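Q: I'm teaching a short session on how sequence maps to structure, and I want students to see two examples side by side rather than one. Could you give me a first protein with its sequence written out and its structure tokens following it? Keep the formatting plain so it prints cleanly on a handout.
A: Of course. Example one:
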Amino acid sequence: MNTPARYNRSIDWVTVLLYLLLVGVGWLNVYAASYSPDAPANPLSTLSFGQLMDFNWFKQIVWIGTALILIMVLLVIDPKAYDTFAFGLYGVMIVLLIVTPFIARPIAGSRSWLELGPVRLQPAEFAKFITALAASRYLASINLRQQSFRDQLVLAGLTLLPPLLIIAANETGQALVFGAFLLAYFREGMSPLILLLLAAGGVILLLALLVPKLWLVAAFTVILLIVLFANRRALLHHLPLAIGTWVVVIGMVFGVDFFFNSVLQDHQRKRIEILLNPSSDPLGVGWNVTQSKIAIGSGGLAGKGFLQGTQTKFDFVPEQSTDFIFCTVGEEWGWVGTLATIVLFMVLLMRVVYVAERQKSVFGRTYGYCVASIIFFHFCVNIGMTIGLAPVVGIPLPFFSYGGSSLWSFTTLLFILLAIDAARKQDLERY
């Protein structure tokens, strides 16, 4: 155990302040998104606790209060326990992800929520920081720059198993977050070629949806021939690799239709279609994004003012306190408020990277980069959803979006890192 006095000297208070600012501003926007002019003027004095729990803004206060208790627990636990029990927690999490689809009732088309009395928890949210712990523990035991093929398979298995189970519960958006771990692995020595190949694959798949396939095949073939003949001396040496690459790319180009029409579910296909052609269904699947962009654009430079958002008042944007919380920022606080929010997140990310870089252990450094990567992914995709640059996949905005599972998981994710960092500082003070 660690005493509070020692943590007062060692904890990174800059990160704590950023966390409190984000949570506080997030609550203001949850209140604005769920505010109703017909509500009692002073609900805290006129309504019972049970009645108050009907309001998202009050439930978010409860989640914030419990998150503060959770922080104290996380900082009291010996940080070595996060390393020691990482694999054990991972095993429990895998069992929970396997069981959840069988015991959870369907909510919004997915079976990913566990109900414990009045509390609903989403195991997929907590799987992110537990996977980060397990992957960091494993990377601390090997040298990623010199690892064997077996080591690569183990790391891939650790990272891919949770999202596969999450997809089985019909939570594709949460599963996509695990791709962010590649950024942390890249910092620890993973070949940049893997990132380049994945990025190139994504571009090819996107082009296959936008460009006639025969044109795309012809263009790629011409580019490949130019590259080969530009290096004619090594033509025979590179020919097998070139042919293999050509076969893979052609398979991707013509296989995208099968994946799009036979693998993706109907609502997933429609979301991608809306992303590629926003005007294709503005009153149907595209309604959320269309109204979100209207709300953000109507805010202008300085916004309409706190609680003055008309898109919010008349419920034009569904899920405005959760996935689309950022459009509340845009409408009521304008360009100034959205810029301030983005800057606040970027400062937090830079601070987390700074904390990660000063760790002396591979475990602490890798976990720190996992924290930064997960928050960065959520931040980019969520804001991208609200302005039509990313498909709507149900990704909450960290510390802003309403919900206990989201707030607890991001709080745990961040404060485990601060606990590890505080222990590092205490070790330095002894010498």
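Q: Perfect. Now a second example for contrast.
A: Example two:
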Amino acid sequence: MHKVTFNNKNKSFFNTLKSNVDQYFATAQIKKTGNWGLYSKTAILAPGAILIYALLILIPAMPAVLAILLCCLLGFVLASIGFNVMHDACHGSYSSKGWVNDTMALSSNLLGGNTYIWKFKHNIVHHTYTNIDGVDDDIALSPLMRQCETQKWLPPHRYQHIYGFLLYAFTSLAWFFVMDFTKYFNQKVHTTPMTKMDFKEHVIFWVSKALYAAFFIVIPIYQLGWMPWLFGFIALNLTLGLTLAVVFQLAHVVEHTEFVHYDHQDDMKIENEWAIHQVKTTANFAPRNKFISWYVGGLNYQVEHHLFPRISHIHYPAINRIVKQTCQQFNIGYNEFPTMQAAIASHYRMIRELGKKPI
């Protein structure tokens, strides 16, 4: 692993915060994992995705406009499955039973990804080295985009606020066709060597990729023909990719969040404890919008998620108040945008500013 460490000698902030959060769960006498609120989402989203897919495959004479709209709707539903089911399960917070988490985590393969690679990329690299340029794979879009001041500027970046969102739309296509295979064959996530995959994980990788290709490429082409499949596949993935990318971009690449650069030359010690680093590099958005909270699986409460990734998102609205109070107690700034529109506007302003040629 990288020689980047945090000043965790005292951890006074996190110790106090964890004590306050633990007290909340003890007093309420509830588990930190998912509950009926999460399981009801699964019961709605999973059958919904299956139904839409079946309609598209089994009704080849469907009007083209309606078929495209259903493909876009399927993209939205699959994104929500990723936010709600896959994300909690990969963090081990979906259920108190490990086998349930492992099973539900495989829903990432439904989106064209791979659970093993996602867990290493997201749980280990991103959640440990959040917004550390040179380590965090989530801000490693260079040379396509410049997401922090320490990244090299290139002339095309002056237009990244224009083409950025179009680029985001190709996230899921790049995920399936390029990024997973690159990480798999290189056995590396950005600059971090992956832990060795055992035989079972190699089998899961190739079988799931084959099944994804069968269900989303081969069967639709056989049933519908090349052109209907192509337009539908593109519509589905552009919707899925844009939705996934925007939600995750709003967590860290917005105004007021902090970035750190690691050049891999020497050991580096972050002056703050890990928990304070998480607060300073992360932002919430639309915390009072119940629909957005439901749809994005609590990922609008990113500060709480980064501090307590093994607590289900169902509980984030409740512990949000505790986190804010503890941050205030320790005089730590808390990044939050009142609406999703405000967060998107902030992200737009930031990438536009970063696109300007540095003086």
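Q: What should students look for in example two?
A: Point them to this: The beta strands are 4-6, 132-133, 188-189, 192-193, 260-261, 268-270, 284-285, 336-337. Also worth mentioning: The chain has one domain: 4-354.
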